[in-house]
Amino acid sequence: MARPKLFDPDEALDAAVAVFREHGYAGASAEMLTEAMQIGKQSLYNTFGGKWPLYCRALERYAETETSEHITALKAGDGALAGIERMMKRVVAQARMPCLGVSCVAEFGTDSEGSPELARIREAGGRAMRTLLLEKIRQAQADGEIATRVDANHASAFLIANIAALRLAARGGAGDTELRAMARLALQALK
């Protein structure tokens, strides 16, 4: 008869997300993970299947959480542009925390041939946010808040790229004033 787990797998997964956010896949050792997760090495393998499956599950958890937070911000505020601004302010406020999505792309690229599982996770994680962002951009254009000369798909890609840029700038030492200015400039480019 199997022994019951003496740890909460969800809490352990959240701890793994924090390790992978800070160190990436290659930089996170099994020892770092088991220490943060407060489990033994055998539990890591028995519960999560090893480091790679754990990384994939951590990326899924992170993508779900971040997407949900972006969507909440986009839906808040009076008007479409206000939601977009709120999302960008949230990114600025959280920019100093390492982004597992950005580090995953930096570490593994976006080539679905090289890492189809990661490409699937990133695509699924970001689809709802990108769809809502595009909807908000089109609504802001209809409301006269964003220029109609700007292609909505390009504007969406531009803002997503700026989210990554803000996070990288913060990790590189940019101050809060600089980060806020970068976010404002990104939004002004759409007007």
What does this structure look like?
The chain has 191 residues and is mostly helical. It has a single domain (9-188), classed as Tetracycline Repressor, domain 2 (Orthogonal Bundle), CATH 1.10.357.10. The chain is built from 9 helices and no strands. The protein has helices at residues 9-27, 30-37, 41-48, 51-75, 80-94, 100-108, 116-142, 152-171, 176-188. Helix 1 (9-27) packs across helix 4 and helix 4 (51-75) packs parallel to helix 7. The longest helix is centred in the last third of the chain and has 27 residues, at 116-142. The termini are far apart.
| First-residue to last-residue Cα separation | 65 Å
Counted beta strands: 0
* DSSP summary: helix tally: 9
Helix content: over 70%
Q: What share of residues are in beta strands?
A: under 5%
What is the CATH-assigned architecture?
Answer: Orthogonal Bundle
> Based on CA inertia axes, which overall geometry fits?
elongated
Report Rg.
19 Å
The H/E string reads: HHHHHHHHH
| Sequence stretches where pLDDT stays below 50 over 5 or more residues | none
Q: List the domain count as a whole number.
A: 1
CATH superfamily: Tetracycline Repressor, domain 2
* Overall mean pLDDT: 92
Reading off the top of the CATH hierarchy, the class is best stated as Mainly Alpha
Structural class: mainly alpha
- Multimeric state: single chain
For the largest beta-sheet, the strand count, sense and barrel status come to: none
Q: Assign the CATH topology.
A: Tetracycline Repressor, domain 2
